[in-house]
Write a structure and sequence with these properties.
By secondary structure, the protein is α/β, with parallel strands linked by helices. It has helices at about 10-15, 75-80, 95-110, 125-135, 150-160, 165-170, 185-210, and strands at about 20-25, 35-45, 55-60, 115-120, 145-150. It contains 7 helices and 5 strands, in the order H-E-E-E-H-H-E-H-E-H-H-H. A 5-stranded mixed sheet has the order 3-2-1-4-5, with helices on both faces.
Amino acid sequence: MTQVNPSKPPMSSRFRGYLPVIVDVETAGFDPRKHALLEIAAVIPKMRDNGLIGISETYSAHIKPFPGAALDPAALEFNGIDPHHPLRIAVEEKEGLLKVFKPVRAAIKNNGCTRAILVGHNPSFDLGFVNAAAARAGLKRNPFHPFSTFDTATLGGLAYGQTVLAKAVQAAGIEWDNQEAHSARYDAEKTAELFCTIVNRWETLKRASSPMIA
């Protein structure tokens, strides 16, 4: 039988005190110390009364390349971002990160958790850029665990036999629009839908096999 501490919000007991926050970044290359972070999005989940999780809020920002940042033309062609487009509403790294970090910290507190854990599709890439940007910006209160992550590529391979995000999402019965893909907000929200679907599927299977679980 699942043991739940009634004095704590249910999310705090689901992932051993961690709050899963689904993150996607778009960048100008693969090296977080050298290449620019251009977009960041974070999706904060919530636990419903039935014990299943869903999307609560999404926060995102377009970010200006930091001084001296390298811009790989191949990466920009892939994600379709023009960092210097006159209509691109972008902010400095510190402002962009704070736009994400502040609500994440608030959600950690509201859910009775100790820290956020980054959920991503091949999340070491996203976490590397988040950590490097936070260090450049001098932000000491990075809400994310410094190295632990949840990987939806692994979970998608386990649940659906698919490790590519678009294919795993579609295998889970979630709509996917190739024209919207490769924006941080869209990819983060689709990754969040995939994560919630897999977590909820597992929870449902546990309940079906253990009638004593409420």
